[in-house]
Amino acid sequence: MKKLFLLGIIMMLSQVNAQDIYDRDKILKDMVLANGYFMKKWPDVGKTIITNKERPSNIWTRGVYYEGLMALHEIYPKESYYKYVEDWAIFHQWGFRDGNTTRNADNYCAAQTYIDLYNLDPSSEKLKNTRANMNMLLATPQNNDWDWIDAIQMGMPVFAKMGVLTGDDRYFEKMYEMYMFTRNKEGENGLFNPEDGLWWRDADFDPPYKEPNGEDSYWSRGNGWVIAALARVLAIIPHDAPHRDQYVSDLETMAKALVPIQRKDGFWNVSLHDPKHFGGKETTGTVLFIYGMAYGVNQGILDRETFIPVIKKAWNAVIEDSLHESGFLGWVQSTGKEPKDGQPLSYDKIPDFEDYGLGCFLLAGTELYRLEVE
Question: pLDDT for 242-296, tens place per residue?
């Protein structure tokens, strides 16, 4: 009887521990809440975005949001979500800011969602501009377009999706060449520092540039874009795709570098190696790290025992300290490229754009939703 009692206690504790890692229904509920806030605030998908100037609603910030919404739609399909995405694409005639000959990944980021919509309901009109733009990039020799690390996330998944869609390995090769140029050649020696496992945002932050404490400058959201891009690409390309091992290795290296610098409260600072340089919690970098790590655990790339506690701590922090009852997300750093931009942050402060932070949150939540608890 005593043994049975003890066994019951152990089973109960294990169930509590499993539930403590995360509650799948709660994750979905929180994503629906946050997304509902945004859709209610922005019912007109074509409405221009006005901050310091007026911009069309197919720029990268909105593109990242729709990446997240399509990820949510994949695990929780709703007609209202699909219509919201499709109406946006139709409004912009499936095109890009600056036309279909742009080399700026911020502009063709929207193609990630256009391709997703095409895959659900194929029609040649949907990808006319995307094919034209991507074919131009394939046909020209430049590999140095991604000269800031944010561009890796905006552009890399487009090449991956086109490679899968067309069966043309040239997309995979061009993606690799552009990625490796940014990694190893941009600036003087590339933007990736293998010693620290992290990335400088662009050549302006290469050494000898230092943070106030003398450390190298590693911007949280910039590194978040890279680990998210690696996860997204790995989720898209076939297991036998060329150069897959490179992306797996880089994701693993980055994830391991992020573990020891996580804040005690679960967030990551905007400056990863200088916690006093505008120190404080920040949501976008944090949720992008959650996304990359959760994907790594789900695919067996990252060790569960090491990373699930890190992921759990970070997600709980975001839900408790960032997500409002209304669905608004606080502690989101505005657009920029370094710690000082958009400061100071707070729980209630509205960033210059509310869309990309939500997109990052939805990517993280949907990958966490897929996590199997043993």
Answer: 999 999 999 999 999 999 999 999 999 999 999 999 989 999 999 999 999 999 9
Name the residue ranges covered by the structural domains of the chain.
Answer: 22-369
The answer to whether 250 touches 223, Cβ cutoff 8 Å, is: no
Between the CA atoms of 324, 232, 299 and 79, what dihedral angle is there, to the nearest 10 degrees?
60
- CATH number belonging to domain 22-369: 1.50.10.10
Contacts 24+ apart (CB under 8 A), 134-141: 134/108, 134/158, 134/159, 134/162, 134/171, 136/100, 136/101, 137/103, 137/174, 138/170, 138/171, 138/174
Tell me which residue has tokens 């679960």. Answer: 266
Cβ-count burial 130-144 (b if 16+ within 10 Å, e if not): bbebbeebeeeeebe
Q: What is the DSSP letter of 219?
A: B
Tokens representing residue 71 in the block: 């990820």
- Nearest partner of 153 among 87, 232, 92, 82, judged by Cα: 232
Helix axes 79-91, 24-41, angle to 10 degrees: 40
pTM, to two decimals: 0.94
- What are the backbone dihedrals phi and psi of residue 66, each rounded to the nearest 5 degrees, phi first? -70, -25
